[in-house]
Every structure is written in structure tokens, then in C-alpha cells.
Write a structure and sequence with these properties.
With 177 residues, this protein is of the alpha+beta class. The chain has helices at residues 17-25, 27-30, 39-56, 103-118, 133-141; strands spanning 2-3, 7-10, 60-65, 70-79, 88-94, 123-128, 145-146, 152-153, 165-172.
Length: 177
């Protein structure tokens, strides 16, 4: 568990499913991520995240607002899958009501700090589509840089699909850790 001024990053609980499902039905939240998520998909995500956490000590953790203990999304670290296998990915997704408050940045900075303290990796990557300006801006505020030549076609989407072309950002391990 990671605690920041306003957030708790933790393992997923059963009571996260309904707010996660609601978030997964929001077209703006899912705009650059894919189609709406069913309850069954949300249950599978929770189980998968907790299994990965159990095996690796990290996952995309559930994100809880400390002021009211509300589930507001997720943020954390995942082992990369092709074409970024062998790398560690930082990622986040927040409910629209949590946007514009600096919460994604707070969670992502805490996640990167945890990564540098607990993982011996040379860099952390993040991926998105070129049109996702909000995520790209956060990646840049975190000190991540777009990897030239790091673009790839998402294997779940056909060429020409709006989510097919993905871009990769990375941040190198700081020298002081």
C-alpha cells in the first residue's frame, strides 16, 4: 500500500467492482482505451491485478481518495506485454469526476518513487495513442520522454483503428537511487 497526501494505492477489493464498472461505462474515460467494460470484465481485471500483485508485488493498484475512501480509478506498474514485453509499464485510469485535480500525477509520482525503491529496472515506460493529450502531458510532467522509433501497432486493434497506433514514453532510473 502506498499512501500520499490525498490518495491510497492498494490491492483491489470486491467493492471496487461497481465504481470500476461505472468508470468503464463512461465514454470519455474509455475514449482512448477501448469499448465499455462489462461487469464480468471488471471482475476479471480485479482478479488479474491481485494475482499479478501476489506474484510480483505490484500491479495497477486500486486508487482510493483518502478524504472519503472512494474508489476513483487505478494507477501502478505492470509487466509489459508484447510489444513492450521485458519492460515495466506505469499506467493510470481515473473516473472523470477525479480529473483536473492533479490526482493522476500524485499517484503516478508515488508509483515511480515506489518503482525506483523496489525494482531494479533501468527505465519505466508508458504507452498511449497520439490523440490522448492529457495522458501525454502527464507523462511529460513526470519527466518521461517520447521514444523516437518506439511507436507500435496495438495487437488488439487492426491497422486504421483509432487505438491501433500507440506511442511509447520512458523515464530512466534517476542516478540518485
Amino acid at each position: 500500500m502506498i499512501v500520499t497526501d490525498r490518495l491510497v494505492l492498494r490491492r483491489w477489493r470486491r467493492d471496487d467492482i461497481l465504481p470500476f464498472h461505472a468508470m468503464g461505462q463512461d465514454q470519455e474515460v474509455m475514449r482512448y482505451l477501448g469499448p465499455p467494460m462489462s461487469i464480468e470484465e471488471c471482475v476479471r481485471v480485479r482478479r488479474r491485478m491481485n494475482a499479478i500483485h501476489g506474484n510480483r508485488g505490484h500491479s495497477f493498484w486500486a486508487l482510493e481518495r483518502r478524504a472519503d475512501n472512494a474508489f476513483i480509478g487505478f494507477c501502478g506498474l505492470m509487466p509489459g506485454t508484447p510489444p513492450i514485453d521485458g519492460q515495466v509499464e506505469v499506467g493510470w485510469r481515473l473516473a472523470r469526476g477525479a480529473w483536473g485535480q492533479g490526482l493522476a500525477g500524485e499517484a503516478a509520482r508515488a508509483t515511480l518513487k515506489w518503482a525506483w525503491e523496489h525494482l531494479s529496472v533501468p527505465a519505466i515506460v508508458a504507452v498511449t495513442v497520439p490523440a490522448n493529450r492529457r495522458s501525454r502531458a502527464l507523462m511529460e510532467r513526470l519527466g518521461m520522454e517520447r521514444l523516437r522509433g518506439g511507436d507500435f501497432g496495438h495487437p488488439d486493434h487492426a491497422a486504421g483503428h483509432p487505438l491501433h497506433h500507440q506511442i511509447r514514453y520512458a523515464i530512466a532510473r534517476p542516478a540518485h537511487v
